[in-house]
Design brief:
Layout lengths: L3 H8 L9 E4 H6 L9 H6 L15 E4 L4 H10 L8 H4 L6 H4 L5 E6 L4 E7 L2 E9 L18 H17 L15 E6 L6 E6 L9 E5 L18 H4 L3 E2 L5 H13 L3 E3 L1 H4 L5 H8 L2 H6 L3 E4 L24 E3 L8 E5 L22 H6 L3 E5 L4 E5 L2 E4 L41 H17 L14 H13 L7 E2 L2 E2 L10 E2 L23 E2 L11 E3 L2 E5 L2 E2 L9 E3 L2 E13 L13 E9 L5 E4 L8 E7 L8 E14 L2 E15 L2 E12 L2 H10 L1 E7 L1
Parallel strand pairs: 8-10, 8-11, 11-14, 31-32
Antiparallel strand pairs: 1-2, 2-3, 3-4, 4-5, 5-13, 6-7, 6-10, 7-9, 12-13, 14-15, 15-16, 17-18, 19-20, 21-29, 22-25, 23-24, 25-26, 25-29, 25-32, 26-27, 26-28, 28-31, 29-30, 30-31
Organism: Hypoxylon rubiginosum
Protein name: HET-domain-containing protein
Length: 697
């Protein structure tokens, strides 16, 4: 959608009484006030128009946009597809005096041909995006959005998705009924005047029964307020209770089950004893089966807590793509236009900031079921093995890559798991095993940036996916692959080369060995390498041995209590100075530049690295947490890759930074990198360095 400021501004470009012309483009360029300059790419477009000499030609003017910062931020919150492209840039921006002098917080310019284009100036930022003619017959866009996510109009869309999936998606229905039933389920009874429910045991359910699962945010309700399964409530919950006694989210989920004609639903707080660690561990280790065998999972995407519900009222104009009247040839004959971003991108604004997307458990709860129905605060989303959809893009959310009006089925990449909405890109690989690992790292990337209410759940909440991964690897002939606290032995030592985007946090207690990404909470980059690039990568270290000790011996994908790894590699002692910002890195509070590299044992200088002028060698350490930051580190190079950009070839070395905690025992504290212009410089450093065996815990 477009905010009214953008829409009305564009529709009024020919009428100064509707859209204020704050100055001419020439006056803007000639102003001595500091501020964003006119983009040269934009200027080049303005000289080709036959009617540019018209005194009222829009290209001659700078137009008023948002009058205040509050108005601008409100448009971002509403989901304006144009203003949101400046959301991160604007977050800490101050009003620009050049724009303020004109009486506005932001201003814009337009180009009409050959491609319609809107260009905004806000703060010290500038940028613009294409507008395109809108075709009302485009089947990839839905402008008919109803006032609620729970009404009959929305349900008809949902029924269409379910029917198509059940009747035509072979990969979503592979295997048919499995006969699997979870240990407990919530049973619905809608035969009486008042809908009822009860909690039943596995033996009370027909083995061929279908069931749903529910993903939701628990919220901050106290233990006394929340109805849950405990030793003291099991007798009560085993008898029929009125549905109205449940939290609103649970009530709505049972209503969806009733609409589908499905009698059972699995809800974690009602199907796992909440006062039994043993039962929780046993049930959490079977999440692969619980979610994988469900007919469908319901996700309370927009609810912050149990009583938030599934169904939300909404303003259709703040959800659907905005079609506006744009005068390309003049004010007399405006044509329907929309922003190109409305197709294939705008849906993210009503998905990615929803409460449930930040919950760590939800990744496997989305990935393992055959199909997932997300009830968001602005629209409903669908995920299955053969596609992802939403109300505004009912055919596919990837419609930006589909030709206009193409009603053919959109082919789905051959990946291990279904493609998740908003997940990192999953590249295609040459063989099935590499593709499986590529898919794993993309999902791990998504998961590592989610939050967990209980930090110790980090490995447990990924356990179901890990079990499924192990099963798939075994089917491909990888019988000896070990799962080590979030890392696969077959991808060692490369998988140790992860890094933090911003300084992370360590949990209070032990959760994973320091070399595992699972040891850190925060914004992580866990795929610093790609399986598809293995052939271009030189491995600089070797694994002597690696193991983890599971907290529960029979569950290697769950919690661990220790995990040493032993490597043979080159050790470098690094002296570190302050970080000097360059165009190669964004500012990083926990990053420090390498001043020199020395022999680990005797301290002999191997290379001194300049920090000004032309630097043929650049190197640094990005510490995992702010507490780890130090002036010294022991660095272990692990990978070296060659890359060429603009005809210039460089070599990039990546590894880990450590501190010594005991004699020949180390703990990881960060990520080490080095970029060189001449490969012989790397070879010279490594040939003189110490080759050692190191134990990392």
């Amino acid at each position: 959608m477009l905010c009214n400021v953008c829409r009305e501004g564009l529709e009024g470009i020919w009428d100064s009484s509707k859209t204020k012309r704050v100055c001419t483009v020439d006056e803007w360029k000639d102003s001595a006030e500091p501020g964003p300059e006119v983009d040269s790419r934009f200027v080049s477009k303005t000289i080709i128009f036959e009617d540019i000499e018209r005194p009222d030609a829009p290209e001659r003017f700078v137009f008023g946009h948002h009058a205040t910062r509050e108005s601008f931020l409100q448009s971002i919150d509403q989901g304006c597809v144009f203003c949101n492209r400046f959301a991160l840039l604007e977050k800490d921006a101050e009003p620009n005096p050049k724009i303020s002098r004109l009486g506005y917080y932001s201003v814009f310019e337009v180009v009409r041909k050959p491609t319609a284009f809107m260009h905004m100036h806000v703060g010290n930022q500038r940028g613009g995006f294409d507008m395109i003619p809108h075709d009302f017959s485009d089947v990839q866009l839905n402008l008919d959005i109803s006032p609620s996510t729970g009404d009959e109009a929305t349900w008809r869309i949902i029924q269409g998705w379910i029917t198509e999936c059940v009747e035509t998606h072979a990969s979503c229905n592979r295997g048919g009924p499995t006969g699997y039933i979870p240990s407990r389920l919530v049973e619905l009874n809608n035969t009486g005047a008042e809908p009822m429910f009860r909690v039943v045991e596995k033996h009370q359910v027909d083995s061929q029964s279908q069931y749903l699962t529910l993903s939701h945010c628990w919220g901050v309700a106290s233990a006394k307020e929340r109805l849950k399964l405990t030793r003291s409530t099991v007798e009560l919950l085993s008898k029929e209770q009125q549905r109205s006694t449940l939290p609103k989210t649970f009530q709505d989920a049972l209503e969806v089950a009733g609409r589908l004609g499905i009698r059972y639903i699995w809800i974690d707080s009602l199907c796992i004893f909440q006062d039994s660690v043993e039962d929780w561990r046993a049930e959490s280790s079977s999440m692969q089966e619980v979610y994988g065998n469900a007919f469908m999972s319901i996700a309370a995407l927009g609810a912050e807590k149990d009583d938030g519900g599934l169904f939300f009222s909404r303003d259709p104009d703040e959800v659907k793509p905005t079609v506006f009247n744009f005068g390309v040839d003049g004010p007399e004959n405006p044509q329907p236009y929309r922003f190109e971003l409305e197709k294939g991108w705008a849906w993210r604004l009503s998905f990615e900031d929803e409460p449930l997307t930040k919950r760590g458990w939800v990744v496997q709860e989305r990935l393992l079921p055959r199909r997932v129905l997300h009830f968001g605060s602005k629209q409903v989303f669908w995920e299955c093995h053969e596609g992802a959809r939403c109300e505004t893009h009912p055919k596919t959310v990837d419609c930006s890559t589909v030709p206009e009006n193409d009603e053919d089925e959109v082919s789905e990449p051959d990946h291990a798991w279904k493609d998740l909405i908003g997940a990192p890109y999953r590249p295609r690989c040459k063989d099935d095993i590499s593709q499986l690992f590529s898919d794993w790292y993309s999902l791990q990337q998504l998961y590592s940036n989610c939050n967990l209410t209980v930090p110790s759940d980090k490995l447990v909440a990924l356990s179901g996916i890990a079990k499924d991964m192990k099963r798939r690897l075994a089917a491909l002939g990888c019988q000896d692959t070990k799962y080590l606290a979030g890392v696969w032995s077959q991808r060692l030592p490369q998988a140790l080369v992860w890094n933090v985007r911003t300084a992370g946090r360590r949990p209070d207690g032990y959760r994973a060995p320091s070399w595992s990404w699972a040891a850190i909470d925060g914004n992580l980059n866990v795929h610093d390498w790609s399986p598809s690039r293995d052939s271009d990568m030189e491995i600089l270290a070797s694994v002597v041995g690696a193991r983890t000790t599971p907290m529960k011996p029979q569950d290697e994908t769950g919690e661990v209590c220790d995990g040493p790894i032993t490597l043979n590699g080159i050790l470098l002692a690094a002296n570190l100075g302050p970080y000097v910002k360059t165009d190669l890195h964004i500012f990083h509070a926990s990053r420090r530049d390498v001043v020199d590299l020395r022999h680990h044992k005797d301290g002999t200088l191997l290379v001194s690295i300049q920090r000004d002028g032309h630097n043929p060698i650049r190197s640094g350490v990005t510490f995992d947490t702010s507490e780890d930051v130090s002036t010294q580190a022991i660095c272990l190079p692990i990978t070296k890759t060659e890359s060429t950009f603009n005809g210039v070839t460089t070599w990039y070395v990546a590894g880990i930074a450590m501190i010594e905690v005991d004699d020949e025992t180390y703990r990881r504290v960060g990520h080490f990198d080095m970029r060189v212009e001449r490969e012989k410089d790397t070879q010279s450093i490594f040939e003189k360095a110490a080759l050692e065996q190191v134990n990392i815990i």
